[in-house]
Amino acid sequence: MSTKKNLKEEALHYHAKGRPGKIEVVPSKEYATQRDLSLAYSPGVADPCMAIYENPEDVYKYTAKGNLVAVISNGTAVLGLGDIGPEAGKPVMEGKGLLFKIYADIDVFDIELNTKDVDEFVRTVKILEPTFGGVNLEDISAPECFEIEERLKAELNIPVMHDDQHGTAIISSAALLNALELVNKDISKVKIIINGAGASAISCTRLYNSLGAEKKNIFMFDSKGLIHPSRTNLDGKKIEFANDNMPAETTLAEALVGADVFVGLSKGNILTQDMVKSMASDAIVFAMANPTPEISFEEATAAREDIIMATGRSDYPNQVNNVLGFPYIFRGALDVRSKVINEEMKLAAVRALAELAKKPVPDIVNLAYGESNLSFGRNYIIPKPVDPRLLTTVAPAVAKAAMETGVAKFPIKDWEAYDTQLSKRLGQDNSLKKAIRTKAKLNPKRIVFADAENLTVLKAAQEVQDEKIATPILLGNVARITQLLDENNIDLPYAEIIDPRADEQEERLEKFGAIFFEKRKRKGYNQFEAKQLMRNRNYFGAMMIETGEADAMIGGMTRNYPETIRPALQIIGRQEGVKKVSGMYILMSRFGPLFLADTTVNFNPTAEEIVEITELAAKEVEKFNIKPRIALLTYSNFGSADGEDAQKMQKAVAILKDKHPNMVVDGEMQAHLPFDIDLLKENHPFSDLVDGRANTLIFPNLSSSNIAYNIVKEVANIDKIGPILLGLKKPVHVLQLGSSVREIVDMVAIAVVGAQGK
């Protein structure tokens, strides 16, 4: 089965599973009691209605308008699919809404209009104005998109932006400024070739003009050739960039001779290596056609060493991705209640993005892209989409530009408070998951799947293989596994399938049994028992790791926890100096990842064992380039109550502070306190955690940790990774019963990262 077909089925399943679609509406106020409902609706709702009637600006105070954007399309230019209609375009609009939410905490209603009539489109959006704080136009064909945006900007009092035009323009402009700086070229003097003359190309070229590029030096091509004044077939906005400084019959190849910059917004594979070689020294090539660039990164960089190359793809350096722009531009515009998104606001976003690329890169970004030290240079001219500083950099720049140009109705007075407000909106959950998978892909390992007769496990193994995270080794009945693969169209050509009970494994069983007997001969096992035990998949898999035939193991889908962990302890053993292994979960909260320990192994650890659990957890957190901020939890706050657990956690904190003076750790404290920083400052200003939320939580016993984990992940409905076993010499992780494909893949990535460090 082809990877393309697999991806299609996976994408369809992704959109249909659970609640269909990618977005939903959730209440933002209490609604549990009759009084809540009387405030939310009748009779209480009449009061904000009248307040807004008396002062229309209060709509931003009492309703969601100020944080609500409409993503509106008629489906006439959807991705590269063309005019597929409003219903077929809806998944894209929902996806846009998802990006608005996860990157800038902006709520979205997507609206698909069944009309190609410009007047009808404009009128419909205009009468919707009272509902929304802003309008993001999407996937509308040219030249209608130009007229629609221009009319709506003129007729509405809320910001309007057609992202297909301006998103690429803003991001590529930032990239262009930095690329030119690196090669020490003046934007007013460089020769720029634009291949493509659609909405995005027109908008890009206009913005380059605003930054100082001279029209006389810009040569634009469409499918019929050079945009030249002598042509009689120029429609839409193309005539704006007609240039007679070259003959009308000049080809793209001829125009590129001596050119400094190529900007591709057309179709794949139209640029050759010879064309690239003909360009000026330190050539800048932005090949932004998707999914296939005008020339591949490999071909372009092979053609010449001095090239600066950008594409629209995430698997190469310098990705020109609109998500670097629209969430933060609308965030800044909404926060000052701007009437428009004007040229100055777009230019402010350009300069903010360009400057951010020159600053030291956070560790979480380096980790997410498998880099040790990203820094401003030819392969890093624009920030990465997972950079957590984008929100606090671009949004304020846009907001300031709106204020300076007089279009802001609600100016920001306290910029420090605004920065804090922005920082609280989003966590690092998506960044961390991407970071883990990306790091795994840098050095894939051989992973044993101990429960390969399970369909979910096989699906996860295929994703692991397709994503190049690891090479699967499948344990189980070969005929049964093969049948499941065939029946479910799962293709695992590189996976080894091993049945520990099969006759052909006799030599391995002898070898593994002898090793196990030597390890356990004084612990109740004879030679026959040792060999027989190797027929158990968990023992066989653990022995593969011990002998170097594999690097890590995932199990637990069809066995209880002790049956999976016992072989690992007996065969692989604990790390040097570790007395107790422990377990940890990662919960992906909106405020960033939360690390919880011990959630799976130790029933009632002593203070000394709590110390070891904390040390192991802190070491694991640091693997993700996150500084541990640790809270030891119980029912008492810094001696406010007595009892065995309170005293135990007090003692553990004292030991930790003595052993690790630089560790950020405190307690004992109740579970809410490390998150309510204002309350912590007010009552316990001496705490190590008053400067920010805790990210690592240590519990007094297995009961409290497991209960807390299960309640939070079910009630909050948030992503999780785990349980991660801490303290073994080599990575073995035990899945929860009912783990999903995604959860298994995340655990495999964790295992690979662990194996890389061994």
TrEMBL record:
Residues 20-153 form the Malic enzyme N-terminal domain. It comes from the Bacteria. CDD domains: NAD_bind_2_malic_enz. Pfam families: malic, Malic_M, PTA_PTB. PANTHER family: NADP-DEPENDENT MALIC ENZYME. In the N-terminal section; belongs to the malic enzymes family. In the C-terminal section; belongs to the phosphate acetyltransferase and butyryltransferase family. This is Malic protein NAD-binding protein. It comes from Emticicia oligotrophica (strain DSM 17448 / CIP 109782 / MTCC 6937 / GPTSA100-15). The lineage of its organism: Bacteria, Pseudomonadati, Bacteroidota, Cytophagia, Cytophagales.
